[in-house]
Amino acid sequence: MSDDLPRPPSGGAGALLPPDAGRDRPLFVVAAILVFLACIAALGARGAWNQAQNWTTELESSLTIQIRPVDDRDPDADARRAAEIAQALPGVRTATPRTRDDALALLTPWLGEGNLPDDLPLPLMVEVELEPRAARDGRVAISDLQARLDAEGMAASVDDHSRWARAVRRAAGTAQTLGLSLLALLTGAAAAVIAFAARASLAARTDVIDALHLCGAEDRFIAGLFQRRFFMLGVKSGLVGALFAACVSIGVSLGQSPADIAFFLPQWAANPFELILLGAAPLLAGLTSALSARLAVASDLRGRW
Amino acid sequence: MTASPHSDPEPVVRFDNVGMRYGRGPEILRDLSFDLPRGSFQFLTGPSGAGKTSLLKLIYLAAKPSRGLISCFGRDVATLPRDELPDLRRRIGVVFQEFRLLNHLSVFDNVALPLRVTGKKRSDYAEDVAELLAWVGLGDKMSALPPTLSGGEQQRVAIARAVVGQPEILIADEPTGNVDPEMGMRLLRLFAELNKLGTTIVIATHDLQLVRMVDAPVMTLANGHLHIRPPRSQRQREADLRNSLDPEPDMPSPADTDSGEDPMDAVARAMEMPEDDETDGEDRDE
Fold first, then answer.
1. How confident is the model at residue A305 (pLDDT cuts 50, 70, 90)?
2. Model pTM?
3. Residue of chain A whose alpha carbon sits nearest to that of B171
4. What's the gap in Å between the CA of A22 and the closest CA on chain B?
5. Residue A12 lies inside a defined structural domain of this protein
6. Are A253 and A266 in contact (CB under 8 A)?
7. Do A305 and B119 touch (CB under 8 A)?
8. What is the pLDDT of residues B90-142, one digit of tens each?
9. Which terminal residue of chain B has fewer beta carbons within 10 Å of its beta carbon, N or C?
10. Are A121 and A177 members of one domain?
11. CA distance A166 to A143
């Protein structure tokens, strides 16, 4: 051999898989759409849960005492007395008696002003504002309050809004379960699509696989090639899908939809959860794609000799 | 140095009553029994469709026999677990008739393939691959893609890829099919060099000119059966020995009559190849 040995070509080694394997545009589009839908489902579930959390917190942070008009008692005095009793309880922040005028003001939008006879008996309310989480932690003894009001001989009933809070929580739970189920289904669909595509590209390039095998490549070496190729596919489609999901989410928030519709739509709240979810989506998509491709290729290769 | 029924205690490849069929078709290889001794050199010949490529596939572990026993490097192929195949395959270099180069990889990457699949780093093999490519005359085409090369150049890439991992057996299927006689001679000399370094060589060809250039045993496939003709020098020695033992010169020697006809002659006739430039006519009596 001469002294001037030829230099090996510079640059890295070429990719062993053909450039087109696992890089079909339709596959990329399908994967991106699946990631987009999965992000929307996750954001929606999270949004519903957030919303429900706000509503139930609001509901649970207050009590209403209703003083029914009874013939022989002065409802205004009863309301003031009930407020005093409530105010004395632990966990209660404020207790505000509402007078007959307040009750009339509440009815005005429906009945118009001055259309009610002065002697019409109206129930009066006492608004009780609780310290945060006091009701859920059991620091406010509602039954105790009811008992004391009964002892005063008032026709009073305490409403802690728990019926509403339960209903809201149930609805939120349903929305959340739905969102998570969709997420699971979409992940499964993405894995199946990737497995299908990996098998197809394996079958399409039997020549390459045979050459690798006959050069002594182990199955896991070949599976690793597909794993890397499909990891990149997953990450790229994940980036595109998550970006679109973020855009839609921001768009919904800016669009000021009515609250009842927004309950099921992902609202952009730039809190850590949303950012982590959208940031992790490409990585999760990549991992799902890589694992799925690896398993599909490995099981196909086992069938050969 | 001969391919013969079980003469070597530890051959690299041993066939014992091997038969092979594809699916439910007829048996295309029947009752093959032979050894490939370590460091041997042999030709495999026979008419087209005789099963040469199938026999090679059995040797390079790309197919399993329908019956019989094949042992490769002392391992019974039938009971070999799948995950031990790659290790054996790395000890076998194959030059395919149709090259089977990867068209999306450069010449350099194609030749480096057997090293890459073992997990070696590029920096560890780059110099060796470049040197080998220079040796086969492709030093200036390392970055070229196979489709841009001529048939002869592709053939040399395929040969470089087959030998880069320093295999213990080199199997070449029609390695001179796409090159002119001069290049064929050069490649044959390359194989002979490798053989001197200890590599077991099997060359499948129906180029009888090529076969006559090397004093090596010839395995001939015809009708699914294998006939093995010892190398010329051995036959000469045996003939000399017989002549010295048997003073009557007009008696035909047993070697000429026991098999009736030399299978090479049958093959040559089947392929209608002229025999006029035959130099070793000592066992031909027609």
1. low
2. 0.73
3. A214
4. 15
5. no
6. no
7. no
8. 999 999 888 899 999 999 999 999 999 998 998 899 999 999 999 888 999 99
9. C
10. no
11. 19
Torsional sign, CA A163, A165, A167, A173 = negative
Assign A157 to helix, strand or coil: strand
| Nearest-neighbour CA in chain B from A256: distance (Å) | 53
Contact B142 A8 (CB under 8 A): yes
CB-CB neighbors (< 8 A) of B84 in chain A:
none
What ipTM does this complex have? 0.76
Residue A17 near residue A206 (C-beta atoms within 8 A): no
With contacts defined as CB-CB under 8 Å, which chain A residues touch B132? Answer: none
Asked if A222 and A287 sit in the same domain, the reply is: yes
A295 in the same domain as A203: yes
Chain A residues contacting B via beta carbons under 8 Å: 1, 5-9, 12-16, 18-19, 207-208, 210-219, 221, 302, 305
Are A200 and A290 contained in the same domain? yes
B192-247 per-position pLDDT tens digit: 988 999 999 999 998 888 888 888 999 999 988 999 998 888 888 888 888 887 65
Å between A18 CA and nearest CA of chain B: 6
Contact criterion met (CB < 8 Å) for B85 and A1: no
> How far is the C-alpha of B111 from the C-alpha of A6, rounded, in Å?
15
Using CA atoms, how far apart are residues B3 and B221, in angstroms rounded to an integer?
Answer: 14
For B13-233, CATH number?
3.40.50.300
Boundaries of every domain in chain B: 13-233
Residues A148 and A203 in one domain: no
